[in-house]
Amino acid sequence: MKETPLFEIHRKMNAKFVDFNGWNMPVWFKDLRQEHLHVRNSIGIFDVSHMGEIELEGADAEEFVNYTFTNTISDLKNGQARYGFFCNNEGGVIDDVIIYKLNNDRFFICVNAGNIENVFNWLSSNSAAYVVTIKNLTNFYGQLAIQGPKAVEEVAKLFPDSQIDRIKKYSISRVNELDSQFKSNLSHSCPNGDNFLIARTGYTGEDGFELFVPNEVLDEIYLKIISEIENIKPCGLGSRDTLRLEKGFPLHGKEISEELNPVVANLERFIDFSKIDFIGKASLESFAESRDFTLIGFKMVEMGIPRSGHKIFSANDEIGYVTSGTFSPSLNEGIGLGIIKKEFSEIEDIEVKIRNDKKKVKRASYPFV
After folding, report:
1. Which residues of 216-225 are buried (b: 16+ CB within 10 A; e: fewer)?
2. Which of 330, 150, 359, 358 is nearest to 242 (CA)?
3. What is the rounded distance in angstroms from the CA atom of residue 346 to the CA atom of residue 91?
4. Could you tell me the strand order of the sheet in which 133-136 lies?
5. Residue 331 predicted with pLDDT over 90
6. Tens digit of pLDDT for each residue in 161-194?
7. How far, in whole angstroms, is CA 253 from its chain's centroid?
8. What is the pTM of this model?
9. CATH 2.40.30.110 fits 292-369, yes or no
10. Which of 18, 74, 100, 158 could cross-link with 172 by S-S, CB 3.0 to 4.6 Å?
């Protein structure tokens, strides 16, 4: 099993580890609920170095991204980012990604841990007609997510020369202080000099940053952050998942996958159908015209915690299944997302089968908080 450079630090913190896409990652440190609420109310830090980083560079980089990515990129300025999908020809999601425009000829992509090789190979296989170089920088970069309502204020104090607080949401910039402190001692530098990048993005629904730094100095930077930022709490992937679910964010392999397209998941806002073409466009247009299934949110009426795979019923009719479910620390009740047949999309009162019992749930809009 793979380990991030912070494994030993987290082990000494008595973290509880789980296998996540082949990575031995901390799921929580002391208490998942406390970590969740701390991020909602203050500031937490997550090791997300299992995520992947891919860079596209070349004269046709923008044209290539436009062809492979579902969302609009033509209006992005240098340093801006956008969320969307890489889809196969059938409209299934190879991965949902954030693409950062570094300049007209260079784009930086954050990829989900379990899809790094798939995305890299898929991009490579579709690049023959374009002047573009595709680099997998996953082994170079580690990644830290600093999230919470106090994140911007506190990180700005840590890196005052980089004017962190001026970075707009969905934008990326360099961290000058880290570059000055560590660049001369790096055994390996980023080919384009972007050794230390910080983006105002995240997966918790709170404001904050994702920090991309060389793996070889990740432990030093992590210890610097947790020692110098007051009241910051190390958090595991467990609270990251409950935080994203409260905000209704999709997870690849749950709400979207190579079999589940973004139209079914109600994510058309991240698809630019006005573009002349992109991979999967025709299939997604067909799904948009006549969909058979749709994604819904729900809250538990009876006691119980819904989990992925639980069946959803209307009376005696099995109408779908839970894609993601949890007990919400913010709401103190069970919540979930599920795929159901479109013909039942207006029904409010439904049931989820938990173990051998059907539990009453009620449709609810999401985000839940």
Report:
1. ebbbebbeeb
2. 330
3. 25
4. 81-87, 93-103, 106-111, 52-57, 133-136
5. yes
6. 999 999 999 999 999 999 999 888 888 887 778 8
7. 12
8. 0.96
9. yes
10. 100
